[in-house]
Amino acid sequence: MIDRRLLNNFDWSTLLVAVVLSLIGVLTIYSATRPVLDAVQKTFYIRQLYWIALSMVAFFIMVSIDYKWYVRFAYPIFLFGVVLLIIVLVAGKRGMGAQRWINLGFLSFQPSEFFKLLFIIAMSRYLSQIEHSEKLGLRYMAKMGIYFVIIPTFLILRQPDLGTALIVLFIFITMIVTAGARKKILLITLLVAIISLPFAGKIIWGGLKDYQKNRIIAFIDPQVDPQGVGYHINQSKISIGSGGFLGKGYMKGTQGPYRFLPENHTDFIFSIFAEEWGFAGSTALFIMYLFIILRGLDTARKARDREGCFLVLGVTFMFSFYFFINVGMTLGLMPVVGVPLPLMSYGGTALLSNFLALSIIANVRMRRFALYY
Amino acid sequence: MDRRITIILYIITFAFALFVIRLWDLQVMRVDEYRKIDERNRIRVLNIPAPRGIIYDRNGRALVKNIPSFDITVVKEDMSRDPDMLAEMGGLIGISAEEIKKKIVSPTANPFKPIVLKEDVSFVEVAKIEARKMDFPGLQISVVGGREYIYGHSASHVLGYLGSLNLAQLRAPEYRGIPQETAIGQFGVEKVYDDTLRGIPGKKVVEVDAVGSIIKVVRIQKPIKGRDIHLTIDIDMQTVAEESLQGKAGAVAALHPDTGEVLALASSPSFNPNLFVRGIHYEAWQKLVNDPRKPLLNRAIQSQYPPGSTFKIVTAIAALQEGVIGQDTNFYCSGSIYFGRTFRCWKWAGHGYVNLHDSLVESCDVYFYEIGKKIDIDMLSRYAKNYGLGTATGIELEGEASGIVPTRAWKVRTKNEKWYQGETLNTVIGQGYLSTTPIQMARLTAAVVNGGRLYKPFLLADTGPREPESIVKINGQHISLVRKALVSVVTDKDGTGKAARSDIVSIGGKTGTTQVIGGRTTGDDVPDKHKDHAWFVAFAPVNNPRIAVAVFVEHGGHGSTAAAPIAKKIIESYFGEDRKTEMNNKG
Q1: Residue B20 with chain A: CB contacts under 8 Å
Q2: Of B303, B309, B359, B502, which one is the catalytic site residue?
Q3: Nearest partner of B439 among B386, B379, B394, judged by Cα
Q4: Which CATH number, 3.30.565.10, 3.30.870.10, 3.40.710.10, 3.40.50.1110, labels domain B235-270+293-586?
Q5: For testing the chain B interface, which of A258, A259, A320 should be mutated: the one with the most B CBs within 10 Å?
Q6: Is B45-230 a CATH 3.40.50.920 domain?
Q7: ipTM score of the complex?
Q8: Which residues of A163-186 are buried (b: 16+ CB within 10 A; e: fewer)?
Q9: What's the pLDDT tens digit per position in B549-583?
């Protein structure tokens, strides 16, 4: 079923790096959740391993399907994604102050995680249909905004899931920009954005929930209330900083297991890793992420068609945003937005969706020379 | 589009570089800072209180013991500020959320230091808290060293009490390094010998998690128990003295005449030092402070009253030594004498012809007025001072009064007036400006009967033999004359101190009655506050004295009736005990 040439072109290195990162994730989850008082090890790491196995299966299934089929059915599956988002709001499961999960009985998953992929596919289809030479005008942008962005973003914000909503917006903007938005429009938009920032800021500020406001305050000044608002950022910086150059050593970190750093196996997993592996390990980790991202950009360049190019760009942007927002947050460079670190944070749906995203890159890359249908 | 991808590639690589720089900043440039915070996060140093030294009496009986007491504390850093949680926690402990909030407001304190929410809770409360501790992060039970004063009120002025460091002490160098929650001696021996008794607290370095649960003990430095001390006090005699003073205001000081050891030092009314152990409650403290009978005053060393006729011992010795009178000098007592004004003898009918012996035995005032006419006040005062009056004895306890021995210079200095000889007539019988403390009188008595050796009284038994501070040199014949008279005071049928006569041991002594107001001062219809103060100084056994006692009863009436019987009881208890131990040793 799979062409031999396709196999020859398959990008094993990216997959290898991704699998290594996810296994590092498992090790770090193990260390972060290791018991210090009660003797029972929590089973997060085992569940994560199951999800990695499942993700591999899904990865290879998705890779074997030519991405032209995704593009062909882009709009129906996008609509399906929107329906799932509505279902979440109507019948979803609540957890940690938000309604993000759909419970299927044997497992629960977050539709918004997959929605991002569906959104990228739909955007790619739309963008690729615009005449090659044509620069993107305001009209197209407005259309795309209405078709793909406004309703889902609204639905996601209702969960509420600020992180995902922001990432959808970022993907939208970066995809349009790379697709060839006119410079003039970009400049005007930028200008309008700057001018309207204070007003928009006021409106957005008023619309934020208290905990969201606090996160922004804490980001601007973590010392405001180190035990309250700034707690996450402070503890994260303490974890990372105390790691030093070589780290405290695997299983020697204290900030996680001693519960000083909350969310230590999910959003703040990098802090735990950096505490145990230090500057050396963290830099190595960065290089692995950078490798995947650069590989994505390279694949976008080499794609056999515009659909493939946009798909890979969207996915790579998404991956990059997750990385920068998450690590930026742990480093105290960005406000606390609850987004996971791709491949490493505990969480099955996110892991699966990350591998699916990488499968799209692999998919496009291995088919870059296939000039026939 | 390729160009834009390239631009994005640059942007992403640049962002990575920024992140690496940030990592370098946190993990390499500021690693020490974060390591420190990280340690502070999880390393706590807990104080292990050092057991306090035990205080024993001269016979090795423990007067205090250490008992654990439990406090409910909370670590501010770990606790939840949620009002509902506070209310629930308050409900569990039995105090309001408001009180908790009030207690945890201390901006300067180390946020990891446990703050005491409730002191000295019962075992039942401890069990209740332990069961629900997990629900309230930061809530802990701290074990604190408590102290029990086994004999309750007994010897409370000597033993003193414990209390937390006050603000001045927190800054004082001698208390440096003492954990703030430590109860230290604040009064009496507990205070004076605090650095001996205190010991050195231990430290327990532990790793805790975010809710303050101890994960592991990193290091333990064991506390060093404070050193025990043995007092010179005989608790049995002390108890007898206190029981004798029960219901009265007064004091007893008993010394060993050959060493200066304080055998008993009682002051009534007393207080219960157990009230202070865990910090005295405000109301209880106010009650003690505002009590008109002043239970906190150690009358044995702090009350200063004219010694009355007990001072005649000094006058007699001075007069003999200076040749003002001789052994056989007689004076006629008609009940009064005129010297500028009328000076009355306590016996209105008069004593007739009396010599020195009789005048001491029957406490004839006129005989001494006659001496007073001839003796120089400065000379008399020199004797009084030589016998230790007018200066604090130097016993270890704080706040000792020095009393007053008037001289011409003193009067000019304090009253800006010259001395009148009439005032000497008051002084010779121990009235007027003269004032002494019971312990001074006990020491004076000891020095009269031990050959003039003046010892500094002391409470700490382990300090070994001491040299007398000074020696009063008096002709031995004069001393034996006075001594004989003092024996007759007790043994003669006319002796004013016959109430002190004992079947167990031979006692010598002298009564004293200090007038509070002029006129008639005895009888049941005289209000207590107008009643005379009663004194009795004594020594026993008469040939080889092993105890010297001064008894003072405020508004007790006559020394002969109010003070002498107490002295007898105390002395009997001492020798009764001695006989018992002697018998035990033989058996």
Answers
A1: 283, 286
A2: B309
A3: B394
A4: 3.40.710.10
A5: A258
A6: no
A7: 0.91
A8: bbbbbbebbbbbbbbbbbbeeebe
A9: 999 999 988 888 899 999 999 999 998 855 555 44
